[in-house]
Design a protein that fits this description.
about 75% helix
Length: about 270
């Protein structure tokens, strides 16, 4: 039997964002946290939630490190972090902690204090950027620089998808959007103001912007939709198959034969 592909609860392809913090906050505002368990009434187990959050945070740090070493421009949010690094002498990861501390402080003053998940996200991002940055070397050829940029973008968006999939808080932008909504402000306008502020302020302060900055700004929405949908398909599709097997159990050999036929049919259709 063919199963219809599961779909995200909200249209992620309508995402209008160009920074990783803004994209994370936007999708988290669209997607209810409980959706990612695959069960509308049961959220993810705490251990699994923590695993998704940690792995996603580390992947984001790896992606940023690739882009730092590629030297073709950083994602818009990291342009601001690179400006902090230039003027303070801190590492990129430490600059991320400083920026997160400022944004979290503002959110707290507005009545939206950070949760442990948001603090963990910020800490692991900064730590992994510096850890992977110490392991990677600057590529010499343009081909490798472009490759590093591409790998970095995919790693960042995959990490964002895992953080979203965990159902935890999206970070400082998420809290600031909620604080704006508490005061009757439109969340989209608040997020857009934050995103424009970090990129304009970062460039004006001497941050590292380039062609990769523009590519990331354009590609983050479509990439996030594709990878988030793949994660949703994997979990929801698996649970759909399991429920079907529970309702209509078949002998083990028959199940194996049907699976082999499906695999051969997929191979032939290619």
């Amino acid at each position: 039997m063919n199963f219809p592909p599961p779909r995200l609860a909200k249209p992620v392809h309508r995402l209008r964002s160009f920074t990783r913090q803004g994209a994370l906050a936007r999708v988290r505002s669209l997607q209810p946290a409980r959706m990612y368990s695959g069960n509308k009434t049961k959220p993810l187990e705490p251990l699994r939630m923590a695993a998704y959050l940690a792995s996603g945070s580390i992947l984001i740090g790896l992606g940023v490190s690739f882009l730092v070493h590629a030297r073709l421009g950083l994602p818009p949010y990291d342009v601001m972090l690179s400006a902090i690094r230039v003027h303070s002498g801190l590492t990129h990861g430490q600059s991320a902690w400083v920026a997160a501390a400022v944004l979290f402080s503002v959110a707290t003053l507005l009545g939206r204090p950070p949760k442990p998940a948001g603090l963990s996200l910020a800490f692991l991002n900064g730590f992994s950027v510096d850890a992977f940055g110490a392991l990677l070397v600057d590529p010499d050829s343009m081909f490798l620089r472009v490759l590093f940029s591409g790998l970095g973008m995919v790693a960042i968006v995959t990490g964002l998808s895992l953080v979203i999939f965990s159902g935890t808080t999206g970070g400082a932008f998420d809290l600031l959007m909620q604080a704006g909504a508490d005061r009757g402000r439109d969340e989209v306008r608040v997020r857009t103001l934050l995103e424009v502020g970090v990129i304009v302020g970062g460039v004006a302060a001497g941050g590292t912007a380039g062609i990769a900055t523009a590519v990331f700004a354009v590609a983050v929405g479509p990439l996030l939709r594709i990878i988030s949908q793949a994660l949703a398909d994997h979990r929801t599709g698996r649970q759909t198959r399991l429920r079907h097997q529970d309702r209509d159990p078949a002998p083990q050999n028959q199940q194996r034969t049907l699976a082999d036929q499906d695999l051969l049919g997929d191979f032939a259709s290619r």
